[in-house]
Amino acid sequence: MTKNIRKREARKGLLISSTYLVYAAIFWGYPFVWLVILAFSRWRYVGSPRFAGFRNFLRVLYDPIFWKAFFNVLNFLMYYIPIVLIFSLLFALALSKIKYGKTFVALSFLVANISSGVAYSIMFSKLFAENGPLNQIIYKLFNTTIPWFTSPQLAMFSISLIVVWKFIGYYGLILYAGIISIPNNIYEAAELDGANKYVKFFKITLPLLNPSIVMVLVFAISLSFGIFTEPYMITGGGPMRSTLMPMMVMYTSAFQKLDPTYAATMSIFTAIFSFVIIWITRKLLEREVDIV
Amino acid sequence: MKKIRVIIFHIIMFSLSLLWLYPYIWLFMSSLKPSNEIYTRFWPTHFTLEHFKFILESAKKMQRPFIRAFFNSLFISLTVTISVVLTSAIISYALAKLRFRGRDKIFDFLIFQMVFPGFMFTIPLYILIRNLGLLNTYSALILPSLMSGWGIFMLTQSYRSTPNDYIEAAKMDGATDLWIIFKIMMPLNKSALSIISLFTFIGIWDNFMWPLIVMKDYNKMPLSVLLASFNHEYGAYIGPILAGSVIQTIPMVILFLIFRKYFLQGISITLK
User: What average pLDDT does chain B have?
Assistant: First the structure.
């Protein structure tokens, strides 16, 4: 009797979850197989793919445009990571200290996070425009204007500022959740030992916050490698390819140059690079944390 | 002395909040200003709806049917969200509460799937949609997102913490599995479900690269792609473009304000 029920339960469970397995086989497994096929073939959407060995991989290795895009990501990370990390940490600390209107402050920062990619790119491209409101204020104050998106040196910096605007609220809240989970008695014990607030911050808060900080870093790095909408909408990759990102190179070669095999190989490279950088980050920064 | 410092601190935080809201406020104000005041004044001499009128009426003649695009986006996002919620609710039940062989393997597979960034699948998925003959159809935008491994994963985690006693009691009363799912599991895991539906809706509404690739038909475009194409070709119409951006942004802001409680919870839940 019980054996029968258990058998029926097992059959039901398998039946229900196999709907997902079938779905995943079609919309995840099939593309996955195609990804591998594409990487090793030559094909331009017509006929059947022809085996090409490692030709696509070699092409990516020797493609200056791909490497330009890769270094642009590093350039983006160089601006984005320190700015977003420091400011979301400050935001999280402020949020843990604030007494009145905490919800209002948290929501004001968080509402930036749900802004729609296309709409917010348009919004900032007008706000930062050559004769836009921001430059007019700067002109009035300093009698000069800043070429936010038209100078190759500045364009990536401006885009990272925009992404910072979007993500400080989200990352800040992750860090805030980490801060409030640190038990108060640790601070009290430290105070008895005569620790001042800097010692408390650097010896207690920062080390115990390590898991949250590493998580924010992982989020930020994987975001950077997949970024598309902002540079596509605001600069189109220019000026002088300074904001060209791997996703844009991939998009143009797959759908404008009609070279899907090459584009698929680039996406594999991009994914590997993002894995490697995330792995290095974790290796360097991740610490075991025990709150007793 | 300490009191003054607290006051200054609060003033700084409130001004920063306003600074963070400023881009939104500027966008909203600008969509209501006469064209020649967009860049010159913050507070306009008078408010006007001409930009909204333009984008909703005249843009149609430029092959940019904004009202239609709005409803396209709404249709696609709602269909996907409802489907993801229902499939996650049912499949997670099997993974969390039914015992069968291979259950843990399936759960491991969900985690394994999440390791791969979505962009790796863009091109092969395009080939699949093309082979199925679905380019330029709503299906191309809906089918690839009908089920969500992430949604199933999140909800399974949440279901696991629901005590089995409720289910046993319901079974004693002769409840079917569907009844248990809809009347017990879903209400008890409301916050996880809200987060899944909210994030799914926003993700689909905001999706840009995928519809840009598979949808060339202006009548079936979601709002994000239509707005981008309008901005691309009629960049000089700043007022209407900003009005279009407001239309694209407002549903999300409203959803955010309604479900703000779940948003804050969601961030702490995704941490676990």
Answer: 90
CB-nearest to B103 from A13, A33, A229 is A13
Whether A116 sits inside 8 A of B248 (CB atoms) is yes
Tokens 């640790």 label which residue? A186
Written as six digits, the tokens of A70 are 């890769």
For helices A152-180 and B260-269, the axis angle rounded to 10 degrees is 80
Q: How distant is the Cα of A81 from the closest Cα of chain B, in angstroms?
A: 19
ipTM: 0.90
pTM for the predicted model, two decimal places: 0.91
In this structure, chain B runs to a length of 272
Question: Cα torsion for B182, B183, B186, B188, to the nearest 10°?
Answer: -170
Instruction: Flag if A271 and B109 touch (Cβ within 8 Å).
Output: no
Q: Report the C-alpha gap between A42 and A51 in whole angstroms.
A: 6
How high is the mean pLDDT of chain A? 91
Q: A51: which strand partners?
A: A41
The whole-angstrom separation of Cα B106 and Cα B155 is 14
Tens digit of each residue's pLDDT (9 = 90 or more) over B158-176: 999 888 888 888 888 888 8
Query: Do B151 and B196 touch, CB atoms closer than 8 A?
Result: yes
